[in-house]
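Box 3.1. Reading complex inputs
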Amino acid sequence: MNLLGRKRPGGPDDGTENVSVAPPAPGAHHGSADAHGRPHHAPAGDTHTPCGDTHTPSGDGARRAGDERPGARGRRPVRRTTAFGLRTRLVLAFLLVAAVSAGTTSALTYREARNALLHTAQDTAVATFREHVRQTSFALPVRAEGTEEILRDIARKGKPRPWVVFAEYGTIRVSSGTSPVSTVITPQLRRAAQANPRGSFERVVKDGVPYLTIAMPTVFRTGPQSTLPTGLILYAVMRMNDEQTNVDALLTAARNGAVPGLAVALLPGLLAARSVLRPVRELRRAAHSMGSGRLDTRIPVRGTDELADLAHTFNETAGSLEHSVEELRRAEARARRFASDVSHELRTPLAGMLAVTEVLDEDADQLDPDTARAVRLISAETGKLAVLVEDLIEISRFDAHAAELNTDELDAAEAIRKTLGNRHWTDDRVRAELPDGIRVRLDPRRFDIVVANLVGNALRHGAAPVTVRLSTGTRSDGEAVLITEVADNGPGIRPDVLPHIFDRFYKADAARTRSAGSGLGLAITRENVGLHAGTVRAGNRPGGGAVFTVEIPLHRNEDGA
Amino acid sequence: MSQGRVHRRSLAAGPVAALLLSGCGIPESDVIEAGGPAHVQNFVSEAYGALLFFRLPHGDLAPVTRQLTPVAATGEFGGGYQEGGGTVRPPTTEKVISALLHGPGPADRAAGLDTALPRVPDGTVRVRFSVGTSASASGSGSGSGGVVLDLPLAVAGLDATAVRQLICTAAYSKDRDGRVPVRLTGRDGATTSGTCDVDPQPGNAPAPAGTDGRTVPGDRPQ
């Protein structure tokens, strides 16, 4: 039922949505839905409505109804999620994993490689320095003069590159460089070398330049088993430029490895997102398409994953839904055809009966009073039955979407005056406020029915005087409309009745099973107004009395006609 | 939700960034020990060189070679080494200790070397060997014997460095490995004894701490 109901807003005449009586009305709901939905399906084909739904901006009528449609409502959250959607999240997750792994790997690799590089450089330097110092000889006490030559000699042989060699002995400070005392060597290294005659080194960063400082205390052999420290400590200071370069290169390599890694990770991220998103998108499109009435929508099932399961379930559900909706439609069509057939079958005998009762009516005066009353009763009831059958046939036409709109450009005031004149409502029971000169395009016959029904209804259920007021206005969607108001001075409509007042055979008073009308007048009014893409509202005036407001577009679009 | 995600992401990125930032470039290091010292050649020969121990500015002892043979009495090592050629005998312990008591020479002083001993230019030093009668010429075989020095000064007033100077100088004059125990006896009758502890190699020398223990102050006469 819902699906049928949902179809209604898709049509260009969804203005009827504004009918205040529309929402609950279980009995009348599907009837009215059909009445409004079908006429537009019939001429434009079944694809018209879904197209209007999926391509919102294209159709004028669809745009008008855009805010009200369930389809549009369902779509909004989808748009909202795209800002931080599944794709973004998946890609971000992939990038994060890639960044963490690449970052960690390159950081660890970098550290290991750097440490290995530094170790090699340091070990080489220390070993080389020791080796070169070993090949020198010093007299004890060490003298300043001559020592410089030896130091220069060692410095020249420095590996991996030349270094500056400093010698410290007592108060003697000699170096192979320009300054006899190094500013790089730390007191800690000096202390360690003096306290413990073992080679040691320290990396020092001074002014951003890394240095390797090596302290090499010297010993000499005094006897076969004994060595003595000479007290002379040689220091080598080496700039670690190359190591710095290599380490920088390592860092660059690590970075250069990590960044393309991230870029590469983007690809599986996008692929994974795509593999998830495509079925999801298809599912959404299919659900949307189903929501707009295409129950034969199916999703191609790919693979065997959870999404394929979902697609499979969706297809099954859609299948059973389509089946039951088809059943319902058929049952409804049968019921409608039955009502239509019954009405038509009744019309022929009724016509005969009407002819007979008219003759009987004329002769009633010559009959005895009892018989005359019975004859008049039969005549009146037959007349009512004829009206009821005519109304039923009219409604059947709407249900069968056979109602046609034969529009004509006319003066609205003129049309209403004609309607009131034909019904002999020219006395002071009906007041008309009809400004001339409002040209409107509508079906004169149907407009006549609308006005006549409303005024008749007001006279019957409300109280005179009934006011018919004509004006123009603009609907909330910007459409210029003709506003026809029919107000009475009765007690008004009870609020609990208000939503059902346009329903078929709805009785405001359950006890009053018989009324002067057929019970279809307002329903037919609404169908007629709906055919004009207009709306009809029922309400109560503040001062009391019911008021019915009909809004019909002044100039209908031809495509909707 | 998104707040939580961001939080989690920053948590994960934190250590990575820290790891990357902390490890860039060449960091400073502590003083790291790397192998033994460098063995250098020295012009000391057991035949004609003597090792005297003087004090370095920072307090440690440093050995210097001194030429005490008749051939090159100047103390300059060059000529004496070249011409000596093993024809001369090594200087006696008495001579070596006398030289030590004379104090550092000009070259020693130029290098900032110093002595903790009082200068005794003309006292006589007597040397006795406590155990055995090992030949004075051969240092290698005399490890078991001790050296007893009778010094022309008051031993009680000497500080630890002075005592070490005497012990080491005496020990290395007797034994090229410097393992000989030395007993000092002063003019004041105070005695102290010990072995030289400047050998850096732990396997070859008695524990450095032991020396202090064995250095008996002079106020304990024996």
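In summary: Residues 1-6, 71-87, 132-143, 202-222 of chain B have pLDDT under 50 and may be disordered.
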